[in-house]
Specification:
Elements lengths: L11 E6 L3 E3 L5 H11 L4 E2 L4 E5 L4 E6 L1 H9 L4 E6 L7 E5 L1 E5 L3 H9 L5 E4 L7 E5 L4 E5 L5 H18 L1 E5 L4 H7 L3 E6 L5 H9 L9 E5 L8 E2 L1 H4 L5 H17 L16
Parallel strand pairs: 2-5, 4-6
Antiparallel strand pairs: 1-6, 3-15, 4-5, 7-14, 8-12, 8-13, 9-11, 10-11, 10-13
Helix pairs in contact: 1-2
């Protein structure tokens, strides 16, 4: 039975080896580079990456926070603060984003897609497709590639997403009703709909370095830790063991709880300051 999402437990915050994290998707260089620059100036960790254990538990798949992981790795941080959220906990829901292709025209889009090796473009819905395009006139186009494994499938997906990411404006949405989407995004040409993934697909992508394009998988974490403002210098210290750093983290957490500085919001929210 899935636990009630109104009683999510306190977040499992840990400091782990940075090299123990394995992303399942490509980082977004347009977001990662500003993040790297910002980390050189900031003094606290605001939102930690969310990870799930892989294999024997000494490695973790990054569910959300590929750009933050990349930034910490690039800056040679030996340790990183994460929130551990196992898939089997019942508090992690895996969904997908829908991509909106904006500020482009259909002829150019289709011309670029036809240049992708082995890509089949078919009218209508096809069950074994790696994505579908839904146009404003309700026409549906299936994108299919004869693939044999996760590597080939995700490589084809990366090429498709790169096509419109480099030539159009890419927006993401969780909405499903086309009339709502077109009304909110009048400059959208088409919506890209991806198949539903399973946790094993995410773990396989990380394990085999067969990365998904950025912004397809969407992990909803019930009880997610945000705005924690944990001191970055606690992660940078090279004269402390990982065990010591985690003891300090737990003491910090207990003090936060005793001072009632941690508040849990059970309802879904919208943030307007991203």
């Amino acid at each position: 039975m899935t636990p009630a999402h109104t009683d999510a437990p306190p977040p499992d915050l840990r400091i782990v080896l940075t090299q123990s994290l394995h992303p399942h998707e490509e980082h977004d260089s347009q977001r990662a580079q500003p993040l790297i620059a910002r980390l050189t100036q900031e003094t606290v960790v605001i939102n930690p990456p969310v990870v799930a254990p892989m294999g024997d538990g000494s490695k973790f798949v990054v569910l959300d926070g590929a750009n933050r992981y990349y930034a910490f790795s690039h800056l040679a941080y030996p340790h990183i603060l994460v929130q551990v959220a196992p898939y089997e906990s019942g508090y992690v829901h895996l969904d997908t984003w829908r991509h909106l292709i904006c500020n482009w025209d259909e002829d150019s889009l289709m011309s670029h897609l036809r240049q992708i090796n082995s890509l089949e473009i078919l009218e209508g819905q096809h069950r074994d497709s790696i994505a579908h395009l839904l146009f404003r006139d309700e026409r549906v186009v299936a994108l299919r590639v004869p693939v044999q494994n996760t590597h080939e499938r995700n490589a084809a997906l990366r090429e498709i997403v790169r096509t419109y990411q480099q030539n159009a404006t890419l927006q993401r949405t969780t909405l499903h009703e086309p009339e709502d989407i077109w009304r909110l995004h009048p400059d959208a040409l088409a919506m890209v709909i991806f198949p539903q993934y399973e946790p094993n697909d995410i773990i396989a992508a990380a394990h085999h370095l067969a990365f998904l394009p950025p912004g397809i998988s969407r992990h909803i974490i019930h009880g997610r830790a945000l705005r924690i403002n944990y001191p970055l210098n606690r992660l940078q210290a090279v004269d402390e063991t990982l065990e010591t750093k985690n003891r300090v983290l737990q003491t910090w957490m207990q003090e936060k709880l005793s001072r009632r500085q941690i508040r849990y919001y059970a309802e879904a929210t919208y943030q307007f300051d991203e």
